[in-house]
Design brief:
With 185 residues, this protein is an alpha+beta fold. It folds into two domains: 54 residues, no CATH class; 118 residues, Roll (Nuclear Transport Factor 2, Chain: A). Helices cover 39% and strands 35% of the residues. The protein is built from seven helices and eight strands, in the order E-E-H-H-H-H-H-E-E-H-E-E-E-E-H. The strands form two sheets. A six-stranded mixed beta sheet has the order 4-3-8-7-6-5. Strands 1-2 form a two-stranded antiparallel ribbon. A hairpin with a 2-residue loop joins strand 7 and strand 8. Helix 1 packs antiparallel against helix 2 and helix 2 packs across helix 3. The termini are far apart.
């Protein structure tokens, strides 16, 4: 639902629950422009404060967060990969099971830093609420050898950060390139 006055249109669901009340207060005072509303909301709203740090409310949308995350994987931008994960982010990876944020980030760093070239192509992306499902194709070059795989990832995004991720991929492609994992004794 959108609330608006003749000068401003805002989707309050992009702000915290307090903003509906703030919106009503501001529109009742007939503020002259959107900057006045935005400044007042930023003073009170956690999501709005986060918006200022990342560049815009749209950057908090789950699909955009996931798109930025996957672009960071492609470009090897470790700082963005870390920044887009919540401090308590958890992961589940096929063949590995549950992983902490630190374990996942270390594994990604290890692969990214040893690769010479990476491409990550989003084939499809669907979002519902805070969940985003992606189909991704990647190609990672390690010298003359090229690792290719296809992934299905499910991300849960809240307040502009990934709080959980599940990753599925072709395990035969992993075994063919990296060698079959040996079971723990």
């Amino acid at each position: 639902m959108r609330l608006s006055n003749p000068l401003i249109t805002v989707a309050p669901d992009r702000y915290c629950s307090l903003c509906d009340s703030l919106w009503r207060l501001f529109t009742s005072r007939n503020l002259p422009d959107e900057r006045g509303v935005r400044a007042a909301m930023e003073a009170k709203c956690t999501k709005a404060k986060q918006m200022g740090a990342i560049g815009g409310m749209a950057d908090l949308e789950p699909k955009r967060v996931v798109g930025r995350f996957l672009k960071a994987v492609e470009t090897g931008d470790i700082a963005t990969i870390e920044a887009l994960q919540a401090p308590d982010c958890s992961w589940w990876i096929i063949g590995h099971g549950a992983m902490s944020r630190a374990e996942y980030t270390d594994a990604v760093k290890s692969m990214l830093l040893s690769a010479h070239k990476r491409t990550v192509s989003i084939v499809g992306m669907i979002a519902e609420g805070d969940s985003v499902a992606t189909e991704v194709r990647s190609e990672v070059h390690f010298g003359a050898r090229v690792y290719r795989n296809e992934y299905h990832d499910l991300f849960v995004v809240r307040e502009g950060q990934i709080v959980h991720g599940r990753e599925y991929f072709d395990t035969a492609a992993v075994a063919a390139f990296f060698g079959a994992a040996t079971p723990a004794s």
